[in-house]
Amino acid sequence: MQTRDWMSYIGMITGVIGAISGIAGAVMGYISYRRSNKLKSLDLRLELRRALNHLHQSTRDISELISNADQSRMGVAAARGYFQSGAMQKWKEAVEADKPELAKMVKDAPAVEEDFEAWATARLESKLVEIHRTQGRLNSIRGKYESSLRSDDEEQKQIRQEHRINPLGR
Q: Which of 40, 57, 88, 117 is the most buried (most CB within 10 A)?
């Protein structure tokens, strides 16, 4: 009979150890879950700051690009004699439409200095998606004006070539 008593004690002891291990595992799991959420939130805040820095830098660069492309297009148009043409009017309207759109993108984006510490993970994610969407629109505008500058460069090469061949326009 004594063997049965020891067996029950051993069973009881292993049961208590198992219960303690289970509780400790649950506590550690919860702590790890909270910590991983904090790290995820930190990663999102860092990514959001990086995206915002890139967005603000892109808007400054694109603003300068628009100005350069506009001057280039006007110079080529003046050299070709179609400065007052409908195509130039359309170009000027497009430039004037893109400038406020660019300003609106900057205004709608949060400031880089903003504190995102209190933001929930879902809000960080949605803002990051919004910033990436805005960056896509900026890239589209950038492509438009970079293409315009390349086209103007080719046109300027042709104008110089024509001037070398026929310097006085005869």
A: 88
What single-letter amino acid sits at 154? E
Q: What is the mean pLDDT of the chain?
A: 86
**Structure-token match 């080529």, residue found:** 76
pLDDT digits (tens, 9 = 90+) for 46-81: 898 899 999 989 988 999 999 999 999 998 888 888
Length of the chain counted residue by residue: 170
**For the whole model, what pTM was predicted?**
0.70
CA terminus-to-terminus distance, the chain: 126
Q: d(Cα 99, Cα 120) in Å, to the nearest integer?
A: 33
- Per-domain residue ranges of the chain: 41-165
Structure-derived torsion over alpha carbons of residues 104, 109, 114, 117, reported in degrees to the nearest 10: 150
| Rounded Cα–Cα distance for residues 81 and 72 (Å) | 14
Structure tokens at 18: 């198992």
Spatial contact of 127 and 110, defined as CB atoms under 8 Å apart: yes
CB 44 within 8 A of CB 124: yes
Burial class of residue 128, CB neighbours in 10 A (0-12, 13-18, 19+): middle
What number of H helices and E strands is found in the chain?
3, 0
166: left (phi over 0), alpha (psi -120 to 50) or beta: beta
